[in-house]
């Protein structure tokens, strides 16, 4: 349910973001259009005003009220022809109106505070009168005869403002429609995109511990989700493997614990059936003690592996001379090896490393014990030391014997995994319980090293690589 709610929130959030981005982009685009049109309109008005003022100034230089008044008016009409909504107001130095067009009373502009600045700076200004807007320009012509004429020209802006207003409203409506369409389109797109994902979610929700062997078919999903399905199927495979190993581990530990408990129960029942001498009681107690020691060792090993799984193993790092340490271990195992006339051969050398001497000793001890168990009589176990590089060393422990099939090699370090289920389980070392090599791998991993096994008709080789410094 939480996953579905989260998916729904994300499904709504994405269209909302798309909608907002669309609004933002269209708003910027519409602002650019409106601003560009307004700028062009201003430039057009200014150009028109300057053109008319220049033409009027040229005519005024030839104007004489007594001689060519009618000709002047005709020329002004020709100048104004083609200019719509343009108004002209001309006065002489005495304030007498020389010419004016019908329309707004442009004489009011003469009393404006900034009127003289329009003439000196050759600029234009916005003038609002009677709910109408005009752009005005002005000029003053001084003739040689001492006559002076002031010209005011105005062009109406109402149509331009109305067009800009309609353009703004149209663009606003376009933005709203586009945003609604973007929102609807995004929702529809996400719906069809989420549909196969929702089917996957339903299939995933139906998987539990009892159906970890189920795999989602890649044929029932779109191509773009095939890699996701494959990754999920691989995860299920790993989970199934972990649960199988955990289940087998639980069964194996129960079996291993049942054997000594059954022995203890049987021996105790036998003792209680009849009276025994002191020596018989002592012998039975010694036998029970051996079973207790096996159980104690197994529990200690399991606690060690649990600490390794939870990354709680903290090695006590000291400088270790591996050649010297392995030589002492070979001496320790000599009595056991002598029973089968097995010898040890150590060759090569390597630099000292940093590590936990007790842990590494336990790991190598388990491997040597395992090698002695499966080495035929009158053979030699070879131990090779070498320097891989300045930061890494290698240990190879090779014992002759029967070849281990390749299908078993990847599982040798699994707990309670046995190549031969019928092999004898005895002895106090943890390798007899099937977890000795699992402990070896945990110790090597704790030291950030690597271990693997190779086997052929000549020998089985445990190859360990360790860093010189952790």
From TrEMBL:
One of the protein's GO biological processes: cellular response to phosphate starvation
Keywords attached to this entry: ATP-binding, Cell inner membrane, Cell membrane, Kinase, Membrane, Nucleotide-binding, Phosphoprotein, Transferase, Transmembrane, Transmembrane helix, Two-component regulatory system
EC number(s) reported in the record: 2.7.13.3
SMART domains in the record: HATPase_c, HisKA
Spans traversing the lipid bilayer: 12-33, 171-192
InterPro entries named in the record: BphY/WalK/GraS-like, CusS-like_sensor, CztS_silS_copS, HATPase_C_sf, HATPase_dom, His_kinase_dom, HisK_dim/P_dom, HisK_dim/P_sf
GO CC aspect terms: plasma membrane
Positions of the Histidine kinase domain: 252-470
Organism, as annotated: Gilliamella apis
Subcellular compartments: Cell inner membrane
Principal location listed in the UniProt entry: membrane
Function: Member of a two-component regulatory system.
A single MF term (Gene Ontology): ATP binding
Protein name in UniProt: Sensor protein
One Pfam entry name: HisKA
Reaction catalysed by this enzyme: ATP + protein L-histidine = ADP + protein N-phospho-L-histidine
């Amino acid at each position: 349910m939480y996953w579905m709610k989260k998916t729904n929130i994300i499904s709504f959030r994405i269209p909302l973001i798309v909608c907002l981005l669309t609004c933002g982009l269209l708003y910027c685009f519409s602002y650019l259009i409106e601003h560009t049109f307004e700028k062009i309109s201003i430039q057009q008005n200014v150009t028109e005003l300057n053109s008319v003022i220049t033409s009027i100034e040229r005519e005024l230089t030839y104007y004489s009220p007594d001689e060519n008044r009618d000709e002047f008016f005709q020329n002004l009409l020709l100048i104004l022809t083609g200019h719509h909504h343009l108004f002209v107001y001309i006065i002489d130095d005495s304030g007498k109106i020389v010419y004016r067009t019908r329309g707004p009373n442009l004489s009011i502009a003469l009393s404006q505070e900034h009127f003289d600045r329009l003439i000196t700076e050759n600029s234009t200004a916005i003038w609002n009168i009677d709910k109408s807007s005009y752009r005005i320009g002005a000029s003053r012509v001084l003739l040689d005869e001492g006559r002076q004429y002031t010209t005011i020209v105005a062009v109406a802006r109402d149509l331009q403002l109305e067009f800009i207003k309609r353009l703004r409203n149209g663009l606003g409506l376009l933005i709203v429609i586009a945003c609604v369409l973007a929102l609807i389109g995004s929702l529809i797109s996400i719906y069809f995109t989420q549909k196969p994902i929702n089917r996957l979610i339903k299939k995933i929700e139906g998987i539990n511990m009892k159906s970890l062997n189920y795999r989602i078919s890649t044929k029932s999903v779109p191509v773009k989700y095939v890699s996701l399905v494959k990754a999920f199927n691989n995860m299920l495979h790993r989970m199934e493997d972990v649960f199988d190993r955990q289940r087998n581990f639980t069964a194996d530990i129960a079996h291993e614990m049942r054997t000594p408990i059954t022995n203890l129960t049987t021996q105790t029942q036998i003792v209680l059936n009849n009276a025994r001498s002191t020596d018989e009681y002592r012998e039975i107690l010694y036998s029970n003690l051996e079973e207790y020691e096996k159980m104690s060792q197994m529990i200690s090993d399991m606690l060690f592996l649990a600490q390794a799984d939870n990354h709680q193993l903290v090695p006590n790092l000291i400088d270790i001379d591996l050649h010297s340490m392995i030589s002492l271990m070979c001496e320790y195992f000599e009595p056991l090896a002598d029973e089968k006339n097995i010898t040890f051969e150590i060759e090569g050398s390597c630099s000292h490393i940093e590590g936990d001497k007790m842990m590494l000793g336990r790991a190598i001890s388990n491997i040597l014990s395992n090698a002695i168990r499966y080495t035929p009589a009158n053979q030699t176990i070879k131990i090779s030391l070498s320097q891989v590089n300045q930061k890494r060393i290698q240990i190879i422990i090779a014992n002759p014997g029967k070849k281990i099939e390749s299908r078993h090699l990847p599982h040798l370090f699994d707990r309670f995994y046995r190549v031969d289920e019928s092999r004898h389980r005895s002895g106090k070392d943890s390798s007899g319980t099937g977890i000795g090599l699992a402990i070896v791998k945990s110790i090597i991993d704790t030291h950030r090293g690597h271990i693997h096994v190779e086997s052929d008709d000549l020998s089985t080789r445990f190859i360990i690589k360790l860093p010189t410094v952790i």
